[in-house]
């Protein structure tokens, strides 16, 4: 299947597509690479230790060299819509420079992590091997000594004693070979970095659906970020007041912002996988405005079901005592009122539907 897939899409390798980002202020480029870390197995044959599809974002305009490239989640393209009528943008991205950045940054980090993991694995294997061979060697030596004692009384045992000595020598040779094989496991080196394709991302301000033309514009990026942080702080304060433990995971781009854990059973340590864990997507909005979930967030809500929660905080800036509206399994409860914005890949939920869950 992998060979058929690559054969079918071979003509697309290295090409560029144009996508829309409703939250972008300026165009940028996403370069997609197939990256690997290589090593050896115990026999010395080449082996892939780690493989990943990596996206490198390249910014344009007046940016510092160290800020020109950043590694971003490769699935970020799922939240962007293909441009229906790609404009005549000249593609100025540099895939080679992005590949060089990837090799000296993220791939280096992954190689170091693989190196550490392999060293730990080799240490465990070596310890087990040494213990095993020590036991086998002691047993082989005891057999040789026993046969030597019997040989004094019965010379015919000499052949058995010679075989036992040969077995002991073979055991030492096998030990050296196995230890050499473990030493090969430690090797971790940079594998190839293959450019798959690039995507030119353009702002979607001029590409919104006509029905959205009369809407108020979204806040500027700084204000939007401040609203998000204020809403998250309100949600965390609320959850902790209920005795729950919170962890912010929005930076991982996994479809929700906060993981909230209920206290585990003090006797068994058990925590119910549904009731004990809440995956919370936080939305801070001006009261009355619709709430937008990205395609990734909506699909994650569908996947996680009852353990996924949507927390909406109206006007979180300057209102730290606001209570979040909590909706468990929003993909099920709000599916009938959502509206897909095809150009932006959002799922829209009317404010009235949010208000109906106030409690």
Helices and strands in order:
Layout: H1 2-8, E1 16-21, E2 28-40, E3 46-59, H2 65-68, E4 69-72, E5 81-82, H3 95-104, H4 106-153, H5 158-185, E6 188-203, H6 221-241, E7 245-248, E8 258-261, E9 277-285, E10 291-294, H7 295-304, E11 308-314, E12 325-328, H8 330-333, E13 339-341, E14 346-349, H9 351-355
Parallel strand pairs: 1-6, 9-11
Antiparallel strand pairs: 1-5, 2-3, 2-6, 3-4, 7-8, 8-9, 10-14, 11-12, 13-14
Helix pairs in contact: 4-5
Give me a quick take on this structure.
With 359 residues, the chain is α+β, with helices and mostly antiparallel strands.
Low-confidence stretches: 206-217
What is the second-level CATH architecture of the largest domain?
3-Layer(aba) Sandwich
CATH topology category name of the largest domain: Trna Endonuclease, Chain: A, domain 1
The secondary-structure element order is HEEEHEEHHHEHEEEEHEEHEEH
From the alpha-carbon coordinates, what is the Rg to the nearest angstrom? Answer: 30 Å
End-to-end gap? 51 Å
Strand order of the largest sheet: 4-3-2-6-1-5
Q: Structural class of the helices, strands and pairings? A: alpha+beta
Helix content: 25-40%
CATH class of the largest domain: Alpha Beta
Range of strand content: 25-35%
Number of helical segments with 4 or more residues: 9
Q: How many distinct domains?
A: 3
Principal-axis shape: elongated
Average predicted confidence as pLDDT: 84
- Could you give the count of β-strands? 14
Please give the largest β-sheet. 6 strands, mixed
Explain what this protein looks like in three dimensions:
By secondary structure, this protein is α+β, with helices and mostly antiparallel strands. The protein has 3 domains: 14-111 and 189-203, no CATH class; 122-187; 209-355, Trna Endonuclease, Chain: A, domain 1 (3-Layer(aba) Sandwich), CATH 3.40.1350. It has 9 helices and 14 strands. The strands form 3 sheets. The protein has a 6-stranded mixed sheet. Strands 7-8-9-11-12 form a 5-stranded mixed sheet, with helices on both faces. Helix 4 (106-153) runs antiparallel to helix 5 (158-185). Residues 206-217 have low confidence and may be disordered.
């Amino acid at each position: 299947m992998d060979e058929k897939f690559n054969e079918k899409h071979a003509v697309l390798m290295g090409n560029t597509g144009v996508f829309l980002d409703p939250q972008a202020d300026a165009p940028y480029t996403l370069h997609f690479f197939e990256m690997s870390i290589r090593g050896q197995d115990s026999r010395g044959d080449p082996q892939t230790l780690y493989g990943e599809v990596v996206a490198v974002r390249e910014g344009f305009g007046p940016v510092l060299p160290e800020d020109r490239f950043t590694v971003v989640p490769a699935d970020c393209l799922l939240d962007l819509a293909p441009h229906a009528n790609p404009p005549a943008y000249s593609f100025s991205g540099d895939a080679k420079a992005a590949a060089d950045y990837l090799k000296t940054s993220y791939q280096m980090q992954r190689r170091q992590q693989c190196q550490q993991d392999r060293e730990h694995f080799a240490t465990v294997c070596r310890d087990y091997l040494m213990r095993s061979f020590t036991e086998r060697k002691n047993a082989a030596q005891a057999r040789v000594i026993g046969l030597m004692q019997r040989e004094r009384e019965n010379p015919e045992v000499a052949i058995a004693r010679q075989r036992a000595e040969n077995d002991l020598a073979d055991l030492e040779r096998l030990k050296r070979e196995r230890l050499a094989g473990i030493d090969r496991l430690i090797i971790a080196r940079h594998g190839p970095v293959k450019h798959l394709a690039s995507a030119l991302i353009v702002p979607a301000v001029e590409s919104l659906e006509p029905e959205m033309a009369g809407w108020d514009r979204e806040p500027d990026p700084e204000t939007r970020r401040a609203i998000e942080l204020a809403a998250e702080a309100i949600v965390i304060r609320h959850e902790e007041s209920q005795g729950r433990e919170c962890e912010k995971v929005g930076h991982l781009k996994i479809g929700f912002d906060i993981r909230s854990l209920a206290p585990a059973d003090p006797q068994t340590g058990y925590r119910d996988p549904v009731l004990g864990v809440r995956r919370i997507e936080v939305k801070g909005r001006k009261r009355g405005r619709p709430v937008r979930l990205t395609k990734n967030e909506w699909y994650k809500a569908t996947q996680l079901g009852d353990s996924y929660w949507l927390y909406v905080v109206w006007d979180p800036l300057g209102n730290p005592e606001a209570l979040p509206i909590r909706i468990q399994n929003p993909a099920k409860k709000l599916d009938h009122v959502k509206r897909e914005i095809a150009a932006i890949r959002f799922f829209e939920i009317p404010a009235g539907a949010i208000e109906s869950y106030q409690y």
